[in-house]
Amino acid sequence: MTPALICLDWGTTALRAFLQAADGHVLDTRASAQGIMALDGAAFPDVLRAVAGGWVQAHGPLPVLLSGMVGSRQGWVEARYVPCPARLADLGAGLVEVPDPPHGFGPVAIAPGVLMDDDARPDVIRGEEVEVFGALALLERSDGLFVLPGTHSKWVHVADGAITHFSTYLTGELFAALKGHTILGRMMTAEAPSPEGFRRGVEAACTLKGPGALLARLFTVRAMGLTGRLAEADSADFLSGLLIGAELLDATRGHVPFTLVANPALTLRYEDAARLLALPHHRAPAGCGPAGQLAVARAAGFI
Amino acid sequence: MTPALICLDWGTTALRAFLQAADGHVLDTRASAQGIMALDGAAFPDVLRAVAGGWVQAHGPLPVLLSGMVGSRQGWVEARYVPCPARLADLGAGLVEVPDPPHGFGPVAIAPGVLMDDDARPDVIRGEEVEVFGALALLERSDGLFVLPGTHSKWVHVADGAITHFSTYLTGELFAALKGHTILGRMMTAEAPSPEGFRRGVEAACTLKGPGALLARLFTVRAMGLTGRLAEADSADFLSGLLIGAELLDATRGHVPFTLVANPALTLRYEDAARLLALPHHRAPAGCGPAGQLAVARAAGFI
Asked: For residue A29, which phi and psi values (nearest 5 degrees)?
């Protein structure tokens, strides 16, 4: 099959690269830890050459599409956010070309992020929106609620082919901060996962009442330990279940079906929580990232 | 006036000592940074001698009452928790004497903490309960809702002279962990306080809906910064207002009057938030700590 496009999902801490045929077949992949905050002094063009130089040597000057934090103010070239509601065509129209692409490469373009320009609750997304359009393409759908678990979980609402609304949950980063830098972490020395602790945490999330309840429930994790009600070995996963459970209940309002996209390790955790909460859900097929990048490149007339 | 009792409120990071007359007059005070986790190798008797040795040299072998984390498993001698509902007499009955008090001192006793032995939401308190009994004595009351702001805020319900229920909010420690160890802290470089940021944060707390909403609202602090809606100089106090507002609304259910006890710096912050939320509240007089310790010593027949 003939390669037609090189795609990079270039985030803060890592990047993944795909060599794609025009019909969406992924012919080759690469991964690197050189996220935009981990370049170790290398310039963006050097990293692109190191990761994908072999592909253009073998196949000629292919076009390159980049998505993710590489388009932020701290990235290679800034690709400004497009506003909600955002369709595939809006992302395509927001593509920004990199001046002077590295020798041997075709044109290099960066996809924009999406901005929810809401005075009371603004939000931003950069990279995950491309995966959502990939999920829509692979599932042949034009609406739904999609979650991309991560350090910052993104919940994305799609209606009639447009991203209408999204919400970022700080769950993963909050878990790490609580475990690493508060009194709760003192009991969390266990390495092994605890499905039982996770289950109890998710159940505890169901009993929360009101917006501030979590602030008090967090301390009871310690009090449960002090009173012998929670084993040290279960405590980290209890906290994880409590936070993920609270996130799922909030984002789905307790009933809206949702689709899980990407992130294999966290996806299992979110699936477990959804099952325990009896929330309707399913998992998007693998490959939403490159599928979305191909769709954006097409919408932009980039290939 | 004749000194009758030496009291120490001996916490994790600091201690305060009081020389009291039998009628409650505080004749002298001392403070030290040698909390039980900051002894720097010193033994508990050495610290007591350094802080209060001058008092017994001048006035003879006075009895000493200790409260706070000094009675925990990590303290001098463990004084086990008494269960809720807990009256002054229960605290008195739970007093534990230190074997071999340092030379020149009278008997040294440690007050117990209080345990809420609830399977679903256990909680513990150690030190603040003594201040609550001091507030009741000074205010000549036997019921009410009391808050002791701190790294861990304690909300204590008192009915008919007994602590019936209490709840610990991790608010202060969560704020520090979010500011110091998540992406939110990157914009929080300002040193000066921002009443405007605090006000906006408290108002944002009012708009939260449901137990998991806070997890999403936290990220919008960053998005507000990225979109120019929140100045860096206002961001730390916005977060503080958001968390304290959520705590106040949860603990008071939005209407129950409460009394603020101790902690001058945080008390102002909690008063500001309560005013913004139109929550009925007042401030307990100074000196609740030693007043409570005297009351416990009397209830125990210790003096």
From this structure: -140, 155
> Per residue in A2-23, pLDDT tens?
999 999 999 988 999 999 999 9
How big is chain A by its Cα radius of gyration, in Å?
Answer: 21
Flag if B121 and A220 touch (Cβ within 8 Å): yes
Q: For residue B48, which of B113, B108, B128 has the smallest C-alpha distance?
A: B108
Rounded Cα gap, residues B108 and B75, in angstroms: 14
Length of chain A measured in residues: 303
Q: Which domains are delineated in chain B?
A: 3-139+288-299 (3.30.420.300), 171-283 (3.30.420.310)
* Positions of chain B with pLDDT under 70: none
CB contact under 8 A, B170 and A218: yes
Which residues from chain A sit within 8 angstroms of residue B211, using beta carbons? 205, 208-211, 213-214, 246, 249-250
Q: Is the link from the previous residue into B101 a cis peptide, with omega within 30 of 0?
A: no
Minimum Cα–Cα distance from A83: chain B residue: B227
Interface A-B, measured as beta-carbon pairs within 8 A, has a size of 165
The tokens for B138 are 């000074």
CB–CB contact A168 B227 (8 Å): no
Query: What contacts 24+ positions apart, CB below 8 Å, involve A276-281?
Result: A276/A199, A276/A202, A276/A203, A276/A245, A277/A202, A277/A205, A277/A206, A277/A245, A277/A248, A277/A249, A279/A248, A279/A252, A279/A254, A279/A255, A280/A255, A281/A257
Model confidence at A262: pLDDT above 90: no
Q: What is the pLDDT of residues B12-26, one digit of tens each?
A: 889 999 999 999 999
Helix A195-206 × helix A232-252 angle, to 10°: 40
Would the CB atoms of B227 and A174 count as touching at under 8 Å?
no
Rounding to the nearest 10 degrees, give the CA dihedral for residues B61, B67, B68, B74.
Answer: 60
Instruction: Give the β-pairing of A3-10 and A64-67.
Output: parallel
Show the DSSP H helices in A125-255 as ranges: 128-139, 171-181, 195-206, 213-226, 232-252
Q: Average pLDDT of A168-184?
A: 96
Q: Kindly list the residues from chain B whose CB atom is less than 8 angstroms away from the CB atom of residue A205.
A: 211-212
pLDDT at A230 over 90: yes
The pLDDT value given to residue B122: 97
Q: Which residues pair with B110 in a beta bridge?
A: B66, B96
Chain B CB contacts of A181 under 8 Å are: 176-177, 180-181
Running DSSP on this structure, what letter comes out for residue A12?
S
pLDDT for B33: 94
Name B15's bridge partners: B10, B32
Average pLDDT, chain A: 95
